[in-house]
């Protein structure tokens, strides 16, 4: 995003937004994304597949998202490789249950 006339200055509205953004950042991190580019990681990411995002503020600041990939482990990938998606609540519940089952040790 380009800055315009207020380069180097922070308006009070901008400062307030920054504080609110930092406090609510975890709410702004998507829970699910769809892969739109896997050119550098074809073995780890499937194009057009839905992936779960693990909250990681440091990764987001660096332009990455922590994604549970095909290995079942979470790794950092560039955020531009994904598009955030909103899923209906019933689907989110089903997806979360599926991830929880997959995370349980085998009996």
Structural features, described:
The protein has 107 residues and is α+β, with helices and mostly antiparallel strands. It has one domain: SH3 Domains (SH3 type barrels). It is built from four helices and five strands; from the N terminus they run ααββαβββα. A five-stranded antiparallel β-sheet has the order 4-3-2-1-5. The longest helix is centred in the C-terminal third of the chain and has 15 residues, at 89-103. The relative contact order is 0.15. The model is unreliable at 1-27 (pLDDT under 50).
Instruction: Sketch the topology as an H/E string, one letter per element.
Output: HHEEHEEEH
CATH domain topology? SH3 type barrels
- Tell me the number of strands: 5
Strand content: 15-25%
Tell me the Rg in angstroms: 17 Å
Discrete helix count = 4
Mean pLDDT: 78
What structural category characterises the helix and strand content?
alpha+beta
* Shape estimate: globular
Topology:
Layout: H1 12-23, H2 25-28, E1 32-35, E2 50-54, H3 57-61, E3 64-68, E4 74-78, E5 82-85, H4 89-103
Antiparallel strand pairs: 1-2, 1-5, 2-3, 3-4
Could you write a compact summary of the structure shown?
The chain is an alpha+beta fold. The chain has helices at 12-23, 25-28, 57-61, 89-103; strands at residues 32-35, 50-54, 64-68, 74-78, 82-85.
Key structural traits:
107 residues; alpha+beta; SH3 type barrels; five-stranded antiparallel beta sheet; 5 strands
